[in-house]
Backbone:
């Protein structure tokens, strides 16, 4: 156990994804109080919800906001891009720290070729609109990819992007190099284990003691899958001619529940994944191929989201239930306002219940 662990971890580049595909979540004001109590200073949204941005005014929380895939075509028009920024960024940025806009999510691994063709032009147009408004040095532009963009991921030093996506990714990587913005990857070792539990050791994906694997080209040893995935992306970017682009994990996590065929989706495994990952980051670990570059991660996710489509696991990645209680309990007590929707905000603030802090929840062993 260690004290004020999450405060130190946040300074090493850990944030939280705050998704809202649910009809039972606490109000943004409650969430702002929750995150202040837990000393979380980096939050990633999937939209630019004005209620959230207003609730976090005058806080130290840095926000990544998102333009959904449905906006990509519109954002290729400079007028639309500038109008969107004037409506969704400028009114809030003086009081709420908006540091990044993600343009689309996992576009290149979808099946909409037309959408793929809009991705880079939309990123470029949003960046130019920020520049015109004097914000491009404050707010960076990027997009999030799934690991499905990799054509080869093992050994990591042989990492390459899919040939059919190379024309799209090359322009995006060049853009990141020119604008000094990170390349975002959503990485889930859970999927690799779920799809092949007989071949993928559970200890390897949960950061538990295991023999690891050796990259025969570099002779570097990997004792967990996430670090191998990160380095594979670095090598794939290098194969496109760049060593100056940082890789950021925009999502990673583990579900606490799943359908019967979703092997490994348990509270025990979710607790192990998140606590072991963040404990390693607290120790300032780096990936084998990038020993001088901090690992930059946003954990998925703050809450379980009951309206997310797909298998049961999709609705069970949260560290917290919507009522503010932790999904998995490791026994250390903290204090936060009761998430009581029948009471007024004033009553909620004056009525405290003990429950586990995020720091202890995901960092203690």
Residues:
């Amino acid at each position: 156990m260690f004290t004020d662990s999450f405060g130190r971890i946040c300074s090493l580049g850990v944030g939280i994804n705050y998704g809202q595909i649910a009809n039972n979540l606490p109000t943004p004001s409650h969430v702002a109080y929750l995150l202040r109590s837990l000393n979380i200073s980096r939050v990633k949204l999937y939209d630019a919800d004005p209620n959230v941005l207003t609730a976090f005014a005058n806080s130290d929380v840095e926000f990544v906001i998102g333009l959904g895939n449905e906006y990509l075509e519109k954002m290729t028009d400079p007028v639309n891009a500038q109008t969107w920024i004037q409506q969704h960024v400028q009114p809030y940025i003086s009081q709420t720290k908006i540091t990044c806009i993600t343009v689309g999510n996992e576009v290149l691994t979808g099946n909409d070729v037309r959408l793929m063709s809009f991705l880079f032009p939309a990123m470029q147009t949003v960046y130019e609109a920020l520049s015109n408004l004097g914000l491009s040095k404050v707010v960076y532009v990027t997009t999030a990819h799934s690991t499905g963009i990799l054509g080869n991921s093992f050994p990591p030093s042989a990492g390459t992007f899919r040939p059919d996506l190379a024309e799209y990714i090359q322009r995006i990587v060049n853009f990141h190099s020119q604008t000094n913005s990170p390349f975002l990857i959503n990485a889930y070792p859970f999927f690799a284990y779920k799809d092949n539990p007989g071949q993928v050791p559970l200890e390897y994906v949960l950061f538990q003691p295991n023999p690891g694997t050796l990259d025969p080209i570099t002779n570097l040893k990997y004792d967990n899958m996430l670090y191998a995935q990160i380095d594979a992306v670095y090598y794939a970017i290098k194969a496109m001619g760049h060593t100056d682009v940082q890789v950021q994990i925009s999502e990673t996590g583990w579900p606490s529940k799943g359908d019967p065929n979703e092997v490994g989706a348990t509270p025990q495994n979710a607790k192990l994944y998140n606590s072991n990952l963040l404990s390693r980051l607290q120790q300032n670990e780096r990936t084998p191929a990038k020993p001088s570059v901090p690992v930059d991660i946003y954990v998925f996710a703050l809450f379980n989201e009951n309206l997310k489509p797909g298998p049961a696991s999709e609705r069970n990645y949260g560290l917290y239930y919507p009522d503010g209680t932790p999904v998995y309990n490791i026994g250390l007590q903290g204090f936060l306002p009761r998430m009581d929707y029948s009471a007024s905000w004033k009553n909620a603030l004056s009525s405290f219940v003990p429950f586990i802090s995020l720091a202890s929840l995901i960092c203690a062993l």
Summary: Confidence is low (pLDDT under 50) at residues 1-12, 330-336, 341-365.
